[in-house]
Amino acid sequence: MGRSTGIYRSPFEAPELPDTNVPAYLRTLARTRPQEIALVDAGSGSELSFGALDHAVGRCAAGLADLGLRPGDVLLIFAPNSIEWPIAALAAMAAGGVVSGANPMYSADELAHQLRRCKARFVVTVPALLATVRAALSQHVDVPIIVFGETDDTLAFEHLLATSAPEPALDIRAGDLAALPFSSGTSGLAKGVMLTHANLLANILQFNAIVRPSEAPVALAFLPMFHIFGFTIVTLCSLAKGMKLVTIPRFEPEAFLQSIAQHRVTQLFVVPPIMQFLASHPLVERYDLRSIEYIGCGAAPLGAASAERVASRLGCHVSQGYGMTEASGCITSSPPGTTRYGASGLLMPSTCARIVDPSSGTDVAPGEEGELWFSGPQAFAGYLGDEAATTATLDDDGWVHTGDIARFDADGYLYVTDRLKELIKVNAYQVAPAELEALLLTHPAVADVAVIARADARAGERPVAYVVFRGAPDVDALMLWLGERVVEYKQLAAIVVCAEIPKSPSGKILRRLLRDRDRTSVPI
């Protein structure tokens, strides 16, 4: 583990980064194995070879360009995982566009926010979500709809694939914008994270350089493709490795286990709640999971005990990684057989890090805790239309300030111990307290509010609101009101009635004081 002047460096050899774009890179690899299976729909059994994937991406790119998608335009995908999801994403990039995935659990208001912020040129969805899309579009957003599946009054995705239009011949450069996932960053409302083709390709090559597939590799894509973990690490990295990628729309215990057993999944990428399920749920014993060779866990810290239990129960390698949307996916991981339970792995190739005292901005002594900063070719290009947030996270020297408190041990393994940032992690999803507070303050009964994280055995954390009511408090009514306006993982675990919100003289909410009081159940 190289280190000098406070900088930690990756122990792995840096891969050579190609001067190309994501779809061109993946399609070139696909042409070397045209008969091998690339994508499988677990529900229907439909399969798509790498040759067919290459053809479908080309036809879809031609269809999108024929409809009017131009270089720099955004294609927003509001749909659960499917075979069509990566085709649409790669096709948008191949047509010079930018792909932005949206959570299919979003409410109409949340979807409308993302549609407006990214200025989507088209929105792709499924028939079951058309009502939500139309409700979002009614909020003064005019975006044409494309649908995966059969509909009567919208453009079917199959129509794009059937086009006879020529595929656009474009000079798409590595530095061009490729993806625009939305993240809350270190705080605040969700922002568009600008990722270039070079960013994504770097992370694909970094991850694949240290986590190599077996001879007959199969991965399961159940983590949502709109999320950076499901998009880069699961989908793009698997396709780049020539793996068979089995898709299921969401995690449902029996469908999840059945898919692993039926398709002989060898690599599995999960989040901590799924690790807890694999470690202890009796349903796991009913299925033959002996094909699993490697499990990679990310998106939130994983305890050593859970990792050890899963490794012992399933007889496979278990590794933990650390990443963020602003890193195009992953910053640390461990090759199979090098895991240190409780740690988040080693720095990716071409990646450097610092551990910095948040108050002084100076590097702390080796082994001590501080804010994790990283730099590397996977570091994002900034937040869309938000210079202040970009400057606060990405400094002039190229260091991304993660907002997480961490340390490195003597061997270069990263341990994430706390958060400087205010985000709440619910089942690996980010919840920004400021977003919920802003929404709650629009309710006429709320005089003041502060949202904090409360530890939760199943979800990791859940948001809790401390509320100062105007007049007699009606907690149930407020919970119901909020529940109708936000996605499920943003819903409150509880509302605590209080007389005032503790604040600093400058008016900043003293969340640490609230968290301390919440843990000890001391009334305010």
Description:
This protein has 524 residues and is of the alpha/beta class. It folds into 3 domains: 244 residues, Rossmann fold (3-Layer(aba) Sandwich); 138 residues, Rossmann fold (3-Layer(aba) Sandwich), CATH 3.40.50.980; 97 residues, ANL, C-terminal domain (GMP Synthetase, Chain A, domain 3), CATH 3.30.300.30. It is 29% helix and 23% strand. It has 15 helices and 29 strands. The strands form 9 sheets. The protein has a 6-stranded antiparallel sheet with strand order 1-2-21-22-23-24, with no helix packed on it. Helix 10 links the parallel strand 16 and strand 17. Helix 1 runs antiparallel to helix 2 and helix 7 crosses helix 8. The longest helix is centred in the N-terminal third of the chain and has 18 residues.
Describe the structure in brief.
By secondary structure, the protein is α/β, with parallel strands linked by helices.
Task: Evaluate the radius of gyration.
Answer: 23 Å
- Strand coverage percent: 15-25%
**Structural class based on helices, strands and sheet pairing:** alpha/beta
Report the count of strand segments.
29
Strand order of the largest sheet: 1-2-21-22-23-24
Helix content: 25-40%
Major sheet summary line = 6 strands, antiparallel
Mean pLDDT: 91
Large-scale geometry = globular
Q: What name does CATH use for the topology of the largest domain?
A: Rossmann fold
Number of structural domains: 3
Name of the CATH first level of the largest domain: Alpha Beta
What's the architecture of the largest domain in CATH terms? Answer: 3-Layer(aba) Sandwich
Gap between N and C termini: 48 Å
The CATH homologous superfamily of the largest domain corresponds to: ANL, N-terminal domain
What ranges have pLDDT less than 50 throughout 5 or more consecutive residues? none
